[in-house]
Design a protein that fits this description.
This protein is mainly β and about 1500 residues long. It is built from twelve helices and 93 strands. About 5% of the residues lie in helices and about 30% in strands. The protein is globular, with a radius of gyration of 38 Å.
């Protein structure tokens, strides 16, 4: 043990003024913290202010750690002149007389001299004390919590000044110098006993005595000792409570079995149960202190009692698994025998307790069970408890270590609890005073007079203006004070402007920890209103507002207020949450849409109702029965960066009226004969023009909703209200919506979209008819989503109460009936529709049009990716050549589906040019801007497979594959049409003036292909005239007779029987879904939910929809869910899982059927949760509208009946299921080269590219899983790695042979050979933004660079390999090595990087250190190595001989004289994969 004799008593320890660039010194230079610790990890060096004396221990305490980084605090000493020395970014870079402990490695001048020191600094936690000492004999010792860890280094000079060095690196964010002269100990500074407040006894004397003891002691902190009678009995008797010797499998006991700790806490979260050594006596207080927490897991400590004797019990993984004789407090509830009996108990949540908090349990003599949190009785938890019960604690989740806390016995106070440290006394004084005010308001003045507190100020001064009160002002402000924000707030928030304004200063660097609370309770019917001053668009989510019973001086501020599990009501988004649980989904206006200048408020009314206000408008009652004394709370979350409290005088508007009856009066008289126009009241994103004749959405490309408009008066019977579409944008999905409503504009609370109206409204959305937001009919004759500019939409309520819609004056028939009279027309300028105007036309009935309704299909368009000589007009439907014949290539905007024809009409020709139009198909992906430079002529396209008709010949990538195909293309004139068609038999057909010229090319791949046209001859401009197939349109399979003018009925029937649907997933899907391969493959990119996908087209009767499970992850439970949904996917808002969809859906999960979130049937077939990779699952709707389940092609019968028409298939990639592909869809064929090409990247990841290994049923590789676990153990940030696992590859013997890879490959320009890393596992890295990916993957050579495991993080942080002291193929590249005979190169500087095209050479060097690693799954000890696979620019390196003294050829493929590459510049070497090898 360290003694105090070695500590300096002359001066208080401080830090030197010279420190790292990110260090901020506070508290008279006794505290150091690293600025922006979550964004920066280095430049945190601090030094001791004074040189260390011999045998003096310089100690610091870790105050704060973050978990964004790997690595942690580093300590040591230096003999350098600290006033003049250069401070590097980290302590490990210090040279010339420096000894540093990094983790468990001791470094001297940056070089490791010892790797097995007894202390590992990376394991130190907050509150740990670390000391450094240079002894008179020249030895360096490190101390941890007063324990000498032994000799770290010798030979420390004693003839020169030595300063302590501390590096706040990585996780370490703040430290404080420890002054042992004034730090209290248990011997000379007794702890302050605080009373346990019990509602069943008189607490007056307890509060008075405790307040007096605490206050008097605080007054003498700097003076005399506190006169508190404290009996510290450290001798445990046989009857003393301790933990039983039998416990959970991961528990380790210490401190005479008073302390229990869960081992391997970062890897395991359960198996941490401990029980008392004997049954608890009646009224015996069993209390524990939380000593250590980690933030890796959810959930935390659980405590309670059980009748089970620990000698006779088999300890479960968690106590909640016991189904008899057990009562536990878990979170904020009570569990009896594993089942919840009380959802909300007490004032605290065990999951939110912090280190040092005290938890206790007591079984009283009457059989009642009570729990105590930090001395406060939480009330009756359960009654009629058995006689003999044991105390039990479950160290679950975040809870790692606890200690049984002995009680100080005082005859006057039967239940006393000691607080550990003197520096917590003021906080507990505030707590006690607050409790006195809250629980005993009538006697508060009497108590304060007896304690002789400083007098309260006579006037209403703010907290900031009474500094002499200090922390004693931590009580609610008087009710007559103005509402302000309390100065104590969230970690990332700040209160300014005398409490009126709160802000998140680093709003672009963090998105949470921005909670602020009012300085006093809000009075009944008092409006607490704020104005949003600043928003940022970096984050999702925005401001949240509400009320809480927690005071700002008691609350341990959470990251977000919705994490508080008691006494809190918040409005977030459009919903309302109570104690972190959503109680209302669609309450009012979406807070996430508020902008700068918008106002938001909250009011608790006299009847206890809680209402929220948006821009002065009451959103209605949100919650009833809210208690009276609540504080207003604001969470500056996500986009919300600053807000200001508005006094009534600040608004400049009239007081908000609470009585809704006096607001929004309807005009008593309406002129029904006035001209129809748009009403002046409308949605917030609408502008009314031309005296009500026109309406537009101004920011049409920035916002797609909040654009509802209405007619100025109700419609008369048989009166047509007609509008014409003037402008559209192509950015959004969905378009105009139209209908009628009884709600007058003056009473309308304009919603975000019309479909949100839930009463007295009838409307048409797409082709679906809705009443009050519910679909009553699908497949109406008109589809509003496919209307185009200049087309007209009309609305009419007829005298018989039926509602009709009109297209260009043509009646489309009855949409719905029983529509109320005196309805207003209502229009939603949604999505693509951005401007409309009133129109009038002659009305035709649908019957007069021979009963045929107008057919709506989406028109084809050209892609914006085109040759530089092309101009795209008419919203992408017309393409014109500007001059000459070069650079005139066009593409279709979308890939062609099977059976789809892309057809254009010739608009103009110029006969002075020879040649003709070129047309065909290409696998080239047209991007905007193009990632490839388009050639001058389409026939020169070689980067992607392209089939073209040029004159009379068909060519594939410029090579003729068919001669004399047709000559009609040479004679195109204005008005002629020409098109290209992709057939189901993978053939290409050319259609000229509607006639099929036959098969032009075969073997067209199943992956996406686009139409391509080159206006290189006489044709100067063309217009796209074809349209996409109808939704649900059946595509005929090709037949020999398809071109014949006469076919028998039997032939037609046989052809029709060979029909199928072109199947793919819809572009609208869950937020964690990524689509590829023509939208037939879906992959979940993160988490375990938010993975819902819907088929693009509705399912036909007897049509199978099947998917194959291509990737499973054993990390999660449950798996794929599949079913059908009767809603259009266009505007569908996806919940977290398929079983959470609430409307018109049938979902199969496991072996159960769910209908609209309710389980309706069990054991309907095979359990989907047990399906393996390669299995198939599907559904089918038969002719009788019955739903069938298909597993591995086998029909398992009917699972549901009465399925409506126009249903889409829905698949939820839930839990284990990570990737599926539609069977029979457009699956990609062929393969992709082993190395990623430049086209594979789009912001680091490209969706439409899959490796062959993903399409085959590759067996799961245990070696790859072990390497992945090792990668996880390194705790490297995920942001450095590709999120798509398909780029990761295993080169173990089995995987390598399974793929059939060659052992050697070549790459670059000129090509250079390299060996594949056999025996290693590759994890792809995200490329830095500076990298030119096209050049990198086209021209650069492949090589390898081995490194030490400790330097991996630094390489990833910098994005480049290390030069100086290069840790790689030979470790450090010394000057002696460079001057040897083997290394005579152009330049012999030390700043060089060593590479090799062979991994055999990289690992042959003896200086490469392997790390011992114990696999958590297999339990075996392994040895691991790491390396980087890199790309290096040609001609940037020198090729040289090996330098390890090999006597034989190292790699049979490479000469020993050319096996090493040396590069001088870091910028020309790009690491793009981390390699891991485990032996």
């Amino acid at each position: 043990m360290a003694t105090t004799g070695g500590r300096s008593r002359s001066k208080k320890p401080k830090f030197h003024r010279r420190c790292g660039s990110l260090i901020i010194l506070e508290n008279d230079r006794r505290t150091a913290r690293r600025n922006l610790p979550s964004a920066e990890f280095d430049n945190g060096l601090v030094l001791s202010c004074e040189p260390l004396e011999d045998d003096q221990i310089f100690e610091i305490k870790i105050d704060k750690k973050v978990h964004s980084w790997s690595g942690s605090i580093e300590v040591g000493i230096t003999s350098c002149d600290v006033s003049n020395m250069a401070l590097p970014s980290s302590a490990t870079e210090l040279h010339n007389g420096c000894w540093i402990l990094n983790g468990c490695s001791v470094l001297h001048n940056g070089a490791s001299i010892r790797d097995d020191y007894a202390c590992d600094l990376e394991l130190c936690d907050e509150g740990d004390v670390i000391g450094v000492q240079r002894r008179a004999n020249g030895e360096l010792h490190i101390y941890l919590n007063d324990n000498d860890q032994g000799v770290a280094a010798t030979g420390i000079p004693t003839d020169r000044p030595i300063h302590a060095v501390i590096d706040l690196y990585g996780k370490c964010a703040q430290i404080s110098a420890v002054d042992r002269n004034c730090t209290p100990t248990m011997e000379n500074n007794p702890v302050i006993p605080l009373p346990i407040l019990d509602n069943n006894i008189d607490n007056n004397s307890l509060l008075v005595s405790a307040l007096a003891a605490t206050f008097n002691d605080n007054c003498s902190v700097n003076g005399a000792d506190a006169s508190v009678n404290y009996n510290d009995n450290n001798t445990a008797s046989s009857d003393d409570l301790c933990f039983h010797t039998k416990h959970g499998t991961l528990i380790k006991l210490s401190n005479s079995r008073r302390t229990a700790e869960r081992m391997h806490a970062m890897d395991e979260f359960n198996n941490g149960i401990v029980m008392t050594n004997r049954p608890l006596q009646n009224d015996e207080y069993f209390q524990i202190r939380l000593d250590k927490l980690i933030d890796k897991w959810s959930g935390s400590i659980e405590i309670g009692i059980t009748t089970h004797n620990p000698d006779n019990i088999d300890f479960p993984a968690t106590m909640t698994n016991l189904r008899s004789g057990t009562t536990m407090m878990s979170g904020c509830g009570i569990l009896t025998n594993g089942k919840g009996t009380r959802r909300e108990y007490g004032q605290f949540n065990l999951d939110e307790l912090q280190k040092g908090d005290i938890i206790a349990v007591m079984k009283k003599s009457n059989g009642d069970l009570h729990f105590y949190i930090n001395n406060v009785d939480q009330g009756l938890a359960a009654s009629s408890m058995p006689a003999d019960v044991y105390g039990v604690v479950d160290l679950y989740g975040m809870a790692v270590r606890v200690t049984i806390v002995p009680l100080a016995q005082d005859p006057n106070v039967p239940n006393m609890l000691g607080i550990d440290y003197l520096d917590r006394r003021l906080a507990h004084l505030n707590l006690l005073r607050a409790l006195a005010i809250r629980q005993f308001p009538n006697m508060y003045n009497e108590i304060t007079e007896e304690l002789d507190f400083p007098p309260e100020p006579s006037q209403n001064l703010s907290v900031e203006s009474v500094p002499e009160l200090g922390t004693l002002t931590s009580v609610p402000a008087p009710p007559n004070e103005p509402l302000r924000f309390y100065p104590r707030c969230g970690a990332h928030a700040e209160v300014i402007n005398s409490g009126k304004t709160a802000l998140r200063p680093d709003a672009l660097g963090d998105f949470n920890n921005g909670v602020v609370i009012s300085n006093r309770h809000i009075k009944s019917s008092e409006l607490f209103e704020i104005r949003i001053d600043k928003v940022v668009d970096k984050w999702a989510g925005s401001i949240e507002i509400g009320v809480t019973t927690h005071s700002p001086f008691e609350l341990d501020f959470p990251t977000t207020m919705t994490n508080v599990r008691s006494g809190t009501w918040m409005m977030t988004g459009t919903g309302v949450m109570h104690n972190g649980t959503t109680i209302m989904d669609n309450y009012g206006y979406n807070l996430d849409r508020l902008k700068e200048g918008d106002r938001i408020g909250v009011m608790r009314k006299e009847n206890g109702n809680l209402n929220f206000f948006i821009n002065g408008e009451d959103q209605g009652m949100a919650v009833p029965n809210v208690p009276p004394k609540v504080f207003a709370v604001v969470d500056l979350y996500g986009q919300a960066a600053q807000a200001t409290i508005l006094d009534q005088s600040d608004n400049g508007e009239s007081t908000v009226q609470v009585d809704n009856a006096t607001v929004n009066k309807v005009h008593s008289e309406i002129d029904m004969n006035s001209d129809l126009r748009f009403h002046h009241l409308h949605g917030r994103n609408v502008r009314i023009l031309s005296q009500g004749q026109s309406a537009m959405r101004p920011n049409a490309r920035g916002e797609f909703n909040d654009a509802v408009i209405m007619s100025n008066r109700p419609l008369r019977d048989d009166e047509l209200f007609e509008i014409r579409i003037e402008e559209m944008v192509d950015r959004w999905s969905g378009s105009i919506e139209a209908g009628v409503t009884v709600i007058p504009p003056e009473e309308m609370s304009f919603p975000g979209t019309m479909t949100d109206l839930d009463h007295d409204t009838w409307m048409l959305s797409g082709s679906s008819v809705l009443t009050n937001g519910n679909t009553i009919k699908n497949g109406y004759a008109m589809d509003l989503d496919v209307l185009e500019v200049t087309q007209k939409v009309g609305i009419m309520r007829k005298a018989d109460g039926t509602l009709h819609f009109y297209y260009n004056g043509v009646d489309q028939g009855v949409a719905c009936s029983n529509v109320n009279p005196n309805v207003y027309a209502i229009i939603d300028l949604y999505g693509q529709c951005s401007r409309v105007s009133l129109a009038h036309s002659v009305v035709e009935s649908k019957a007069s049009n021979n009963g045929s309704s107008v057919q709506f299909r989406m028109k084809h368009f050209f892609s914006e990716c085109c040759g530089k000589n092309i101009t795209i007009k008419n919203l992408g439907s017309t393409a014109c050549r500007q001059k000459g014949c070069l650079d005139s290539i066009l593409f279709s905007s979308k890939p062609l589906k099977v059976g789809e024809t892309f057809e254009v009409e010739v608009e103009s020709v110029d006969q002075k040019w020879s040649g003709c139009l070129v047309i065909g198909l290409t696998s080239f992906l047209p991007e905007t801007p193009p990632s490839h430079i388009l050639p001058s002529f389409a026939v020169d396209m070689k980067s992607s497979v392209t089939w073209l008709l040029q004159a009379t010949d068909v060519k594939r990538n410029g090579v003729v594959v068919k001669e004399n195909y047709t000559g009609s293309v040479m004679r195109l004139e204005v008005g002629n049409t020409i098109g290209v068609q992709r057939q189901a038999d993978n053939s290409m057909h050319i259609i000229i003036n509607g006639e099929d010229a036959g098969v032009a090319a075969t073997n067209i791949p199943k992956e996406d292909v686009y139409a391509i046209i080159d206006l290189c001859g006489s044709v100067e401009s063309v217009t796209a005239v074809s349209k996409e197939p109808d939704i649900g349109e059946i595509i005929r399979a090709p037949s020999i007779s398809s071109c014949s003018e006469a076919s028998s009925d039997r032939e037609e029937e046989s052809v029709a029987s060979q029909t199928y649907y072109s199947t793919e997933f819809h572009q609208n899907h869950g937020k964690n879904i990524s689509l590829s391969c023509g939208n037939v493959t879906a992959r979940r990119t993160g988490s375990y939910n938010q993975g819902i996908t819907i088929s693009r087209h509705p399912l036909a009767r007897q049509q199978k929809f099947e998917v194959k499970l291509e990737r499973l992850c054993s990390r999660w439970t449950s798996s794929i869910q599949i079913g059908v949904i009767g809603q259009s996917p266009e505007k569908f808002i996806f919940p977290v899982s398929g079983t959470s969809i609430k409307k018109n859906v049938w979902i199969i999960s496991g072996d159960s059927l769910f209908h609209n979130t309710i389980k309706v049937q069990d054991k309907i077939g095979p359990d989907l949760n047990k399906l393996q990779t390669g299995c198939t699952v599907g559904i089918l709707i038969d002719d009788k509208s019955c739903l069938h389940l298909l597993v591995n092609g086998i029909d398992h019968g009917i699972v549901a009946e009465d399925i409506p028409h126009h249903c889409h298939a829905v698949v939820d990639l839930y839990g284990q299921c990570e990737q599926v592909s539609i069977i029979g869809g457009d699956l990609a064929s062929g393969g992709i080269p082993e190395e990623r090409e430049k086209a594979d990247f789009e912001n680091g990841l490209k969706e439409n590219c899959r490796l062959p290994s993903e399409l085959s049923l590759t067996p799961r590789c245990e070696y790859q899983e072990m390497c992945r676990r090792f990668q996880t153990m390194l705790a490297l940030p995920r942001g450095y790695f590709e999120v798509n696992p398909k780029y990761n590859k295993c080169y173990c013997d089995s995987c390598y042979k399974h793929r059939g890879d060659e052992a050697y490959n070549s790459h670059g320009e000129p090509p250079k050979e390299y060996a594949r890393p056999l025996g290693w596992c590759k994890f792809a890295l995200r490329l830095p933004p500076r990298v030119d990916t096209q050049r990198l993957f086209e021209n650069c050579h492949v090589a390898y660079h081995t490194t030490d495991i400790n330097t991996v993080r630094k390489v990833l942080d910098s994005g480049s390999l290390l030069c100086k002291g290069d840790s790689m193929i030979g470790g450090i590249l010394s000057k002696e090595m460079l001057s040897s005979e083997r290394l005579k190169f152009k330049d012999t500087t030390i700043d060089q990087i060593l590479l090799s095209p062979s991994m055999k050479y990289c690992v042959s060097h003896g200086n490469i250190r392997r790390m011992e690693y114990q696999d958590v799954i297999s339990g075996t000890t392994q040895y691991s190595q790491v390396a980087f696979q890199v790309r290096v620019q040609p001609d940037s390196y020198d090729v040289g001989p090996e330098r390890i003294g090999a006597n034989q050829q190292i790699d049979a493929h490479f000469d020993n004289k050319e096996i090493q590459w040396i590069c001088k510049e870091k910028s020309v070497v790009v690491p793009y994969a981390l390699l891991i090898k485990i032996d």
